[in-house]
Sequence to fold (678 residues):
Amino acid sequence: MAASIEDVAKLAGVSIATVSRSLRGLPDVAATTRDKVLAAARELDYVASPFAARLASGRSSTVGIVVPFVHRWFFAEVLGAVEAVLSQAGYDLLLHNLGSSEGRERFFTVLPVRKRVDAVIIVSLALTEDEVEALNTLELPIGMLGAAHPGFFSVRIDDVTAAKQAVNHLLSLGHTRIALIGGDTDDPMRFTPPHHRLTGYEQALRAADLTVDHSLERLGYFTVEGGEAAMLELLGLPERPTAVFAESDEMAYGAMRAIRRAGLRVPEDIGVIGFDDHSTAALLDLTTIRQPVAEQGVRIAAALLASLHDPIEPTDLVLDTELVIRGSTVKAASVYAES
Amino acid sequence: MAASIEDVAKLAGVSIATVSRSLRGLPDVAATTRDKVLAAARELDYVASPFAARLASGRSSTVGIVVPFVHRWFFAEVLGAVEAVLSQAGYDLLLHNLGSSEGRERFFTVLPVRKRVDAVIIVSLALTEDEVEALNTLELPIGMLGAAHPGFFSVRIDDVTAAKQAVNHLLSLGHTRIALIGGDTDDPMRFTPPHHRLTGYEQALRAADLTVDHSLERLGYFTVEGGEAAMLELLGLPERPTAVFAESDEMAYGAMRAIRRAGLRVPEDIGVIGFDDHSTAALLDLTTIRQPVAEQGVRIAAALLASLHDPIEPTDLVLDTELVIRGSTVKAASVYAES
DNA sequence: CGCTTCGCTGAAAATCCTTACAGCACGGTA
DNA sequence: TACCGTGCTGTAAGGATTTTCAGCGAAGCG
Fold:
């Protein structure tokens, strides 16, 4: 049988209240007393039961994180970063993987985090009004990563500006017929990025006095296959684009494959730029927009922890993105350009 | 203020014991009574406090999962699968990301899962005797994924056989000078696969009456860069290999890059086979050994849940791997072979 | 020297459930 | 009719902490 606080109290010759205080490092405990307690606890190999502690204190020392998918690179990266911050601070991470729009609906109706977390992190979801309302009933600090909402903490990048960065790069290389492979802005999962990146794309073109040709905007559904299919459509156009901006690296990979399978070269015939700086982007020599993924996770977790410590007004942090130029837009000593 | 069980009892006109029983679907409750309680609970928007329930029942409804890294493809995939099974069963998932050997040591000395989970899943770690002992003090069902230990549940593949599959494929193509790019068998994180895959590699060679040339065995540390560096070494040998077996797809990617950068072709000059069937393996046209990643996660989670339901003897399940032939070993209509 | 303050400690209430056990009404059995 | 089992329900005892409040001795102050 595992030791209880009473055993420790007995062994240390103090009351359980003092044990509790000592073990949690609260003030108002004499140093000698604390040492006795710590010694006794070590001797008995005692750790407090978190459930009893949580029940009594009303604090759960747990943060819930809600992701659309765990297994995609971006979310896994975020998860790792958040976990590191939380565990360091003695918090547990309760993972909720939505997986599908049904999963999403279930989450927001059942709200399985009720009465069991101190804060919630929502990753990459554009929330509906109903969902916001549901979260508000929790009366907890809410953090959003990759999106923002008044009243919630948020850490994100400026997708509009980032998309402009990408398109401007292509423009600077002399491209004027630039296609877009993006996510579905009507997707039931309602990711935030597609809207903003589309906006940025169009704004950049307009700013360069180019007309926006909607036939150059295709859906790639954030997958390699989707990107490949979208590129095939683009290649079939009467006047094909000379460059493509894909809203994710995966879609860019697909696009590159389609281009090469069609017997064309990247970047000579068609330049390709992606988004994210996925871990394999360097490998595939893909020009892309790098966003600080882990850092966003660290920041949102830290912000929430701070707000739990002493309640503060929600903050909105926008981190910078960076253009990473590789061989898919600029001819260089690249692996595939060589071969 | 959130409703408590007492409020529900009052509204339904029953005792709290009956509320508890009704809400948990226990038998020995009259149907009409149960309906009254459910109605009252819905009306008050009541959910039981999990911490109170856990304290009272002694069950945590939580499973701990220990992974060396979250952000690597394999572990993210496992995590997603395990989460799906557990959440479906009403269990929480407590994630522990080791990150480094210090993190590992901390985990096994502190044992942060103590008193807070009903079972533990260990992913891809070869445990030391001390670690096994530490886990045993928990007196909980332990599940291992990617490794096995007497007394613990396990789900895994047969790495020896899988490695033989890989090498035999190369042998069948006529290769006789086959190199290995592997993980460090002395790695402080002590992953299981490197040992077994090395063994399989050597066994396959010996079975083909080839001598094992240790100068053909190089360390790639399971990263792209490591694989690239290892391949560079191999290319510098007086008599270079005609094929390479990399113990992971990432290392295979690095190897392919090194080969191409050296002006050689894959597979004509050097064939490459990887391991895992990473999500980008198809994209890079890499021949590889596919292992059922998500399924391993599902199986180990299910096994543990079953054992919590009624204690059973630990099981050891070995799943099949599959050779997936692509353009990196066999000349075909591949992207890069074309260009 | 008497009174306040301070530092520390302990008793006990509070947290919100689960569950063993007792009990009650009712129908069936001998 | 007396008794017994059955099917439900309620009472109350935990479960293991945290936290409030009271209290005690010693030190500081005038």
Notes: Residues 293-309 of chain B form the longest helix (17 residues). Confidence is low (pLDDT under 50) at residues 333-339 of chain B. Residues 58 and 115 of chain B are 9 Å apart (CA to CA).
